Amino acid sequence: MAWYGRLVGNKDELHPQQPIDIAASIHGPVLGLYGGQDQGIPVATVEQMQKALSEASGNKAAQASTFKVYPDAGHAFFADYRPSYKAEAAADGWTRLLDWLKKNGVA
User: Hey, which bits of the chain come out as E strands?
Assistant: First the structure.
């Protein structure tokens, strides 16, 4: 589950891999919730990750991943204590999260 987490980026000592680098080896479905206006996580990288997961050869769990981009939301749209909070996107994201957890036997 990723609430607006970076998917692609530079590698360094603290970040030897990025999520895109391990997409093929992820053993479960991913739910990604992103803001279309997020300046730090371009929508193109969300699409890149979604494609990598859907093409994960023989990995049906990764292929079942779901991504939602909220066009009018920016980074931290779920943080109700920040100016970036978007109530409608946050409510929809929360509902999607609960449904995803139930569907995947977590809740």
Answer: 2-3, 31-35, 66-70
Alpha-carbon torsion, ordered 93, 23, 71, 94, to 10 deg: 0
Tens of pLDDT, residue by residue over 34-70, are 999 999 999 999 999 999 998 887 778 778 899 999 9
CATH code of the domain made up of 2-103: 3.40.50.1820
CB atoms within 10 A of CB 24: 14
Residue 88 near residue 96, CB atoms below 8 Å: no
Mean pLDDT computed over every residue of the chain? 92
Task: Specify whether the CB–CB gap between 69 and 34 falls below 8 A.
Answer: yes
The label of the residue with tokens 């609960």 reads 98
Domain assignments of the chain as residue spans, ordered by start: 2-103
What is each CA distance from 64 to 22, 30, 58, 78, 83, in whole angstroms? Answer: 16, 8, 12, 24, 33
pLDDT class of 92 with cuts at 50, 70, 90: very high
